[in-house]
Design brief:
By secondary structure, the protein is an alpha+beta fold. It contains 9 helices and 22 strands. Helices cover about 25% and strands about 30% of the residues. The strands form 5 sheets. The protein has a 6-stranded mixed β-sheet with strand order 6-7-8-3-9-10, with helices on both faces. The structure holds adenosine-5'-diphosphate and magnesium ion (MG). Its EC number is 3.6.3.20.
């Protein structure tokens, strides 16, 4: 196991990159702590696989360094990095049995027969494939093939890091949640550093202690699931995490106060001095409620999602979503929306530009 450091990493697939738009990774500086459970979350094309392949050595970055426990491995090939990588689609040997597939990474390292047998049976037990051990891999369903592929990634206990690149893509939805919690459990048991790549917020938030959110080749925020939910550092994180995502509303700043559609909105605390650029107010639907006063809005849609209602209302040409309990308003009704002040933040050019009130500033 090792701490993994990425230093000034940049990567372009072009021979002569010019502007930042030619880079699949723009500038990445990151520490992955030894034993951590990480998720790398972002939409398709944001550079997740590029980053993983640089860590595993399948790809040499255009610029920057990768360090394992302080040692530069940037130029080392994958087989000398002591890592395990599980890909989106199963990588197994069809002609071998399931047992031999699982044993292969250990045999390859010259592990003794007794240890191999113990590890293979342990992993098979965890993944619930014990009854298939003697079958040939060729006959397995895609689900089971991918489970074996994951097992091959987990069977060694001496790797620096286990990386999963969207491993549940081919897995049946009802099996997905099961494997997801299984992976979490596995991490707690083996304590290896794990990096789990996905574009699915639910997968990321259930697996990881720390989530690294990427957009357009850049890391926009690193945080615990709670931190990402409560204080998105960027409106992208606000949109991407949550269901529905954070409301982001056009705003104006005057004398340190924020106005939406001419009406002042109470904030979590002071706006950073010197804030300029495109100003927006961010508040999650969970913190929008109905009241007797507040922002006047027209209800456009009401969805009953079981335990609560989600409404979409329109005010000043903007859509505002709210998650509500109790009696739902009617479509077409005029309502007054209130934002919980301590959960209402200001963003400038996408980045957070307000700070929570301290006792001093509130006094
Ligand atoms: P993700 O895994 O987040 O979907 P990728 O790392 O695969 O994203 O891709 C990041 C960007 O790099 C995308 O714009 C993609 O088109 C480009 N890219 C990925 N692989 C290659 C490649 N082998 N050659 C050229 N461009 C690539
Ligand atoms: Mg990918």
């Amino acid at each position: 196991m090792a701490k993994i450091t990425l230093k000034n990493l940049r990567h372009s697939y072009m021979p002569n990159p010019k502007g930042p738009e030619d880079y699949a990774l723009k500038e990445v500086d990151l520490d992955w702590q030894d034993g951590g459970a990480y998720a790398l979350l972002g939409p398709s094309g944001c550079g997740k696989s590029t980053l993983l392949n640089i860590i595993s050595g399948l790809l040499v970055p255009s610029e920057g360094q990768i360090l394992f426990d302080g040692q530069d491995v940037t130029q080392l090939p994958p087989d000398q990095r002591n890592i395990a990588q599980v890909f989106q689609f199963p990588v197994i040997y069809d002609t071998m049995t399931v047992y031999d597939n699982l044993a292969f990474p250990l045999k390859n390292r010259g592990v003794d027969q007794a240890t191999i047998d113990r590890r293979v049976r342990e992993i098979a037990e965890m993944l619930e494939v014990t009854d298939m051990l003697n079958r040939r891999a060729a006959g397995l369903s895609p689900d089971n093939k991918q489970k074996i592929s994951m097992g091959r990634g987990l069977v060694r206990d001496d790797v620096n890091v286990v990386m999963f690149d969207e491993p549940l893509t081919v897995i049946d939805p009802h099996l997905k949640w099961k494997l997801r919690s299984k992976l979490k459990e596995l991490h707690q048991r083996v304590k290896a550093t794990m990096i789990y790549v996905t574009h699915d917020q639910t997968e990321a938030l259930t697996f990881a202690d720390k989530v690294v959110v990427m957009q357009l080749g850049e890391v926009v925020q690193i945080g615990t699931p709670v931190e990402l939910f409560e204080r998105p550092a960027h409106t992208f994180v606000g949109h991407f995490i949550g269901s529905p995502g954070m409301n982001v509303l056009p705003a104006e700043l005057r004398d340190g106060a924020a106005y939406f559609h001419g009406q002042q909105v109470a904030l979590e605390g002071p706006v950073n001095p010197g804030t300029t650029g495109k100003v927006e107010i961010g508040v999650r639907p969970e913190f929008v409620s109905l009241g007797d006063s507040g922002i006047e809005a027209t209800v456009r849609r009401v969805s009953d999602v079981g335990r609560h209602y989600v409404i979409d209302a329109e005010a000043g040409g903007s859509k505002i979503s709210a998650i509500l309990n109790g009696t739902a308003p009617m479509v077409g009704e005029t309502v007054h929306l209130q934002f919980r002040a301590d959960q209402t933040r200001v963003y400038a050019d996408g980045w957070i530009a307000s700070t929570p009130a301290t006792e001093e500033s509130a006094a």
